[in-house]
Design brief:
By secondary structure, the chain is mainly α. Helix content is 51%, strand content 5%. The longest helix has 33 residues. The protein starts with a helix and ends with a strand.
Length: 121
């Protein structure tokens, strides 16, 4: 097809079309018709292949699947509903207030940011 197309394009480029030119153009038309016929044959064979497929599910598969689903549903229903255990609240640990260590230099700070020495007597 591609070769026939290339030859036809080169024939179209000529100013005068002789018998060789006409043969190349006719060969392109014949190749195009062959491609279209092959496409139609392929489409018809594909449509027949899907409708006449020998691959089918076995007859026993659907009832067996329904039995399995029913068994699972019954076993789930008869086993009872189990609620997840409630999470207990975490108990907070209360911190025991620790004593601040005494100041070793026995100084107390006043609110006006003045340091006043305090002597124990």
């Amino acid at each position: 097809m591609t070769q026939a197309k290339a030859e036809a394009n080169s024939a179209r480029g000529q100013k005068q079309c002789g018998p060789v030119c006409r043969t190349k153009l006719a060969a392109e038309a014949a190749a195009q018709a062959n491609v279209e016929a092959a496409k139609q044959e392929l489409l018809s064979s594909e449509s027949k292949a899907t409708s006449e497929s020998p691959l089918q599910a076995p007859v026993w598969l659907l009832p067996a699947a329904l039995d399995v689903v029913a068994f699972m549903a019954l076993s789930t229903g008869l086993s009872g509903w189990h609620q997840a255990p409630r999470r207990q609240r975490a108990k907070r640990r209360r911190r025991i207030a620790t004593r601040q260590p005494r100041q070793t230099d026995r100084r107390r700070v006043a609110n006006d940011n003045n340091v006043i020495p305090f002597s124990v007597g």
